[in-house]
Amino acid sequence: MEMNKWSGKAYSQRYYEILEKRKSLPVYAQKQEFLQCLMSNQTLILVGETGSGKTTQIPQFVLEAVHENHPSKWLVGCTQPRRVAAMSVASRVAEEMDVAIGEEVGYSVRFEDCTSSKTVLKYLTDGMLMREAMTDPLLQRYKVIVLDEAHERTLATDLLFGVLKRVLSNRPDLKLVVMSATLEAEKCLEYFRGAPLMKVPGRLHPVEILYTQEPERDYLDSAIRTVVQIHMFEPPGDVLVFLTGEEEIEDACRKIVCELGDQVNVVPLYSSLPPAMQQKIFDPPTENVRKIVVSTNIAETSLTIDGVVYVVDPGFAKQKLYNPETRVESLLVSAISQASANQRAGRAGRTRPGKCFRLYTEKSFNHDLIEQTYPEILRSNLANTVLTLKKLGIDNLVCFDYMDPPAPVTMGRALNDLLDLGALDEELNLTRTGEMMSEFPLDPQMAKMLIVSPKFNCSNEILSISAMLSVPNCFVRPRGEAQKAADEARARFGHTDGDHLTLLNVYHDYKQNNGDSNWCYQNFINHKAMKSADNVREQLVRIMSRFNLKTCSSDFTSRDYYINIRKALLAGYFMQVAHLDRTGHYLTAKDGQMVHLHPSCCLDHKPEWVVYNEYVLTSRNFIRTVTYIRGEWLVDVAPDYYHLSNFPNCEAKRVLQKLSKKRDRAGNPK
Ligand code: CDP
Ligand code: MG
């Protein structure tokens, strides 16, 4: 009997079933060729159609090769741009290898490490591998690194290109496999000079592309209508609909169920969906029931769903955008690229000829859509990137080997922000604070807020707030009858001074009720989000204690309890402050952007000054998670940033001027 060399047990029935399927994947036919190529090259580039088996099979091939030649415990790492993909693929591969997830095969994503000392194959987000490089600059634990989904050109993947190139020249024994669906292969070949390109021939069936005659006014409506029509008039075959985010997807799912009832099996797919629900998209089909998957971009290339014959593509996705002038980074629903549209269409032709319904005109495809999505490095705030690269010892950020260099103005802005936060000194070297900030897996402002919170005697509370801000929204808001009850429950947690303190109230109540799931249910609180917040908090506590930052609280009955917390918030987020002008509008301090309080905001009045956690661009400019602060504090907490000499002329400046005069008078009586 054949034994599983990892577990030492006999293979299960399921193992053999999956093995048959694996053998039919296109990459399987090229296993030997791949292994030879791997043996004779340090870097190799592999391009193959989505669904050809790259992500699930190639790391296993690598593993076989590595463990034949190196019996010791070497790790193979495979990066994914998305945490959902890392988790889902790791589970799948553990199943394929007939081992328990977290043992020989594991995953690591921000705030969640599911690996053990036994782990030999690890799926991890590209961001996590960057973090690992910060403490292990030569990535000594790895024998082979697979950079997957390179065509997505996420910020972290782009940085890894440069970092790994350096590591490879210092470690001749390390190998790199770059994998991608479409990739501008030439660019990659040029970048990794000398690396061979291996192509896995696709076995795509023809996909008929149908455009709308006229532009659609409401793509959500039109998507739902199209699904209903497909179901009524097209032969059997599953449907994949691309929408932009959780709320929209849940909304669409409800409406489709409403129209078609149980003739169809409607499955949502987005990143904050619990893993068990995500797994449902891979459930084997039920006879005579059409499966309709409504998904974000995840299903474009990261996850392959078998059985899809029809694709509905409204042509939009949420994309990160950054404007260095206004310093606003936001996720914006925007038109996809032609390359993305073609990837989406391809999803229809995996098993047999399919159809793709594009909910835009052919003219629009040709003239309005850009050819390729811009790499994320050109669309992001780079403050975190600079911090990481500095920590990696890369001092000259201009000479770093970027595949696409970032815009100088964006780079300048990042350096400025880090100077303002005290992370860099005048020579642009990391300060002690900067060193510490780089070790928090958080944005620089939040890291700064945590680091200074002991000085405000409220690090316990700031830890809780940071944890709550790092997990998905904890408030559940069902549709229909329960909605009112949910809103009332939410209002009970409301704090008059703002949303950050409301989140703190939720966390405290949750802890007081010992993390009881019933309590969560009754109060319309998402239990899973709370459990992750608890977990995140623990991890942040560990980082704090590594730096001897004490955990402390002010006396709860003291007047200063909430004031201290609000000041600490400001000490991190002083760049995200808005001032109410005489016309009743908020303008962001310094940048003068008009913004509105997000509808979810718990404030029942409009304070003159607020600090906000996030700028959300939708139909209007919203600031979300907002807390009331006092103008006087700005000068105390961030004297340099709010120094009047470097302030543009605006109403906020005049108010600050008055405040500082008043302060001087009070401070130095003549
Ligand atoms: O990476 P690539 O797009 O080339 O393919 P893959 O993700 O390795 O997927 C290969 C096959 O595994 C597809 O047919 C998937 O449907 C299947 N798969 C699965 O059944 N369950 C998963 N959780 C992941 C993949
Ligand atoms: Mg893949």
UniProtKB/TrEMBL annotation:
Organism: Brassica napus
Keywords: ATP-binding, Helicase, Hydrolase, mRNA processing, mRNA splicing, Nucleotide-binding, Spliceosome
UniProt-listed Gene3D superfamilies: 1.20.120.1080, P-loop containing nucleotide triphosphate hydrolases
Gene coding for it: BnaA07g38500D
Listed SUPFAM superfamilies: P-loop containing nucleoside triphosphate hydrolases
InterPro entries, A to Z: DEAD-box_helicase_OB_fold (IPR011709), DEAD/DEAH_box_helicase_dom (IPR011545), DHX15_DEXHc (IPR044756), HA2_WH (IPR048333), Helicase-assoc_dom (IPR007502), Helicase_ATP-bd (IPR014001), Helicase_C-like (IPR001650), P-loop_NTPase (IPR027417)
GO cellular component annotations of the record: spliceosomal complex
Top-rank EC class of the record's enzyme: hydrolase
Domain Helicase ATP-binding intervals: 35-201
MF (Gene Ontology): ATP binding; helicase activity; hydrolase activity; RNA binding; RNA helicase activity
GO biological process, one term: mRNA processing
Protein name: RNA helicase
